[in-house]
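Lecture 7 notes: from sequence to structure.
We start with the chain below.
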Amino acid sequence: MNKIFKTKYNYLTKNSVVTSELAKNRGKSGLVKTALAIAAVSTSHLATAVEIVYYDQIRGDLHKNADGTLIYSKGEDMYAYYHLEKLAITAVNPNTTALALDLDTIGLTHFGTVIYTGNLTIPVSSYGFSLYLEQDSSIKATGENSTAIKVLDEFRNDRHDPAFLALSDEEKAKKIKELYQNLYTHIRIFNYGTISSENGDAIDFSAFNRKDLFGKVVENLKRNDDRRVKTSVSIDGVISAPEDKAAFIGSDHLDHLVLAEGSKIEGNIYLGKDDDELYLSGSDISKVKVLEGSYKNNPDALDNTENNYLAFSQELTGSSESVGTYEDKAIRNFGKIRIRERGILNLTGNMTSNSGKVGDIQIDEDAELNIAPKNTSSNIRLDYNVENYKGIIDLSKNNLPNDTLTISGDYRKLYRYTENAGELRVNTFWQNPDIQQTDKLIIEGNHEGTTTVKAYYQGKESIFGDVTRSDVEKNGGLLTPVVEIKGEEKGKFEGTAPTTNAGEVQLVRHGNNYYWTLTALEQPAPQPEPVQPVPQPKPVQPVPQPEPVQPAPQPEPVQPAPQPEPVQPAPQPEPVQPAPQSEPVQPAPQPEPVQPVPQPEPVQPAPQPEPVQPAPQPEPVQPAPQPEPMQPAPQPEPVQPAPQSEPMQPAPVQPAPVQPEPVQPAPQPEPMQPAPQPAPQPKPVQPAPQPEPVQPVPQPEPAPQPAVPANNGPMIYAEQIAGYVQTQRIAREALLQENGKLQTRMGSLQAPLTPQTWARVGGGYTQEQGKDRLAYKSKAKFVQIGSDLFVNSNENGVRRGGVMASFNRADNKFYDKYHAQNGYIVADKLVGKGKLETATLGLYSTWYGNNGLYLDTTANVGWIGAKYTAQNGNKAKNHGFSFMANTEVGKEIAISTDGRWNFVPQAQLTLLKTKMGGFNDGIRDMKSTHQTVLRGRVGAGVSFNAEKGKNANSFFASLNLVHDFMGAKTELEVGRDRITERYAPTFGEVSIGGVLPLGKQLSAQANLNYTRALSKTNTLFSGSGKEAYQGYVGLKYIW
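Predicted structure tokens for the same chain:
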């Protein structure tokens, strides 16, 4: 059906051209009262092209008076439902609107409107207007200052009967309550098409403000079952407005704007009043300059209760103080900002929340809050609390140090169930000699959770610069804080950063600041944690209460309450006259001294001092020194009773006449001499300085004293270093063990009569500790095969020669005595693991003399391969080569008559050279030197041969002393650092083994070795500097 809608005046059909006169007429008729006004019903100067194709007949009804005004009967229902295949509207005249939304609901009880295009089926929503534009639909405004979609004034004078307008304001207000039983509660727009304006704003909801004819916000009308009033706009297509115009202007109610992935927005965004929400989910906002949570034209006129929300999962660059450009957007007046997964906020300046309040920024996993890179260092302030879960705060993008980010609120973990409070990245330049500059995070509130700190430079994790331990020692320790907390530290920052040398900087806490350090400190430092109880001095703070006690000391004289003790001189009651001692209660006037200075006043009645003589009774008050323990007594609010003595002040009225009579005791003035003693009593009052002990309150000063000694410890090695340095040592020990002795290789010292082929497999465990700090444990598996190439004999003996090959694989663990975390040495010394492989190919030649003398020589070349995995996850690999030459000499000396038992002295000298290749592990350059070992062995043992010269049972046992003349240390150049570890050069060795015939030509062999260093080293492990166990089993076949 081609009809668009029907009125008394005209029919519009597809491709109709709406003229100005027609538009004027339509405007007066209120053509689409239900909520839709196409081509600006309220304007009389426009020309609009309309293309509408219907699927269904329009439903809805309109009524109007002959004079063009609208009349509705109370309680009328009005629903409109427009299902269109396509909608294309273009407003071409100036100051017009392509689609105007008329939300005046005079006289309606139930109403709602929906316009949708495409094949969807959308229900009509009560009290709401909904617009769904599919991809081919568009709403455009091309005229000067024209708007694509705009809400008309809700309450408009031209919509009412003249008789209504003639009513008084009071009558109008009453009538409004009757006519407007319900109002529109929501506007929804879902746009897959295009909404654009070439010379004005694209979407303007500013008139959706609930104002009545008097310009007042309507608060006293029924609110549609208390539904919240809001707008909801979801954009998957295009919204376009010119530069510095608005793509969206919000209402006075909640505005919910979603810019979906794939959408494109051109023009600024202003959300308006009330709590508004803006979601960016991958939209093209390259042509947006302003993201404003409040009004378009007055961003400073904020409602104190307003709390706007911005959430995004895309990159956004700008700040609150930006003037607004495409590259540096103005992001203003959002009380809460959430950076979602894959979201990035690049800060170009300060960020402030609504009305100067502290807002909240949440950083989700894999999200980033960065200081945007520029040519100078930045000092940026966030007037927000920051909550972080596995997100990144990156101050290193600038590739310059000295950027500072200040969080005015708290910085804390995002979720209660985890301590993870994300990651902080900084640039730190550390050059020699100790020139350190670093980015800094300042938290003015509290910190809660665990935050990891890393140093980055040009996107690579590393300290920039060439700092070594020796340079740090020259110039002192902690330099520039990386993190400064002005509130309370309820969590921790921890982190490491590699250098281009052997050292690893770690983050260490000092007070409430965190610094980079290269020094490993002993664990006593954790004592600052108990220092935390130092806050106990806070209770000491109540001690200042003694300050009021200062006046209290005066009541100490009031403490003549002990005077009742002098009342013990009850004998005095005989001169009951002293009963007026109640008058001496006049000492109560001493409370007058509580009035401090008044005491001198009683001194003025010099005559009275005589009665004051009873004051000597305070001499017993001398026990008042007891009040010193009574110092708590100053609290004796009993002093409060002293004021009761104040009522006794009337007693002084009696003294005037009466006292002269007791003047008779005036003879007491003699004791009055001690009276000066009470004067000293004020001296005990001096104990009031006891509040001076309150001075311990400065004890809190030690609280910040988790003082970190700058250079009292060894350098912190990067965890990889222990593996890099010790791998050559492990390789050398493996190669030497493979070579072994003649007895361990062949099972006995028996000379063969014919060639043999042999093989053996074995394994071993070695743990060795250096003299300085490093150690390792190694578990090895080994296989070796060999075969005689010749066996020659003559009248002097037998010579054999052959070829052999071996392969060894070891699993290693590396340890560092000064392994540190957060700058402090920890109990766990394991710093990494590794794998080592060696393969050798060699020759051997052995002479067996008929007199029992033998001489064995071997030589081989080998390949070494190593892989390293540090505890921090860093991996590297390397390879090298080896060469070894060995000579062993010994003699079997018969110690039994049958010649089967022999004593065997032995000596051996082995030369081994290894060279590991240089490599870079991605952070630092490693260069190893040629390592040479010259190892000597002397030993003696016994052997048993069941039948000489034949395949028979044999057994041996030996005790050896081994010493390294060269090679008892290993070295590695790491950057500019040369790392050396020294090992015990001398150790003892015990070996046992034997051969068991399995036939005429086949026999089995086995042996065990135990090695132990003869000196202790760094005692990283229990026991000596070295312990090793090896065991081998093998077979020999005689040809």
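Points to note: The first strand starts at residue 17 and ends at 18. The chain has 19 helices and 63 strands.
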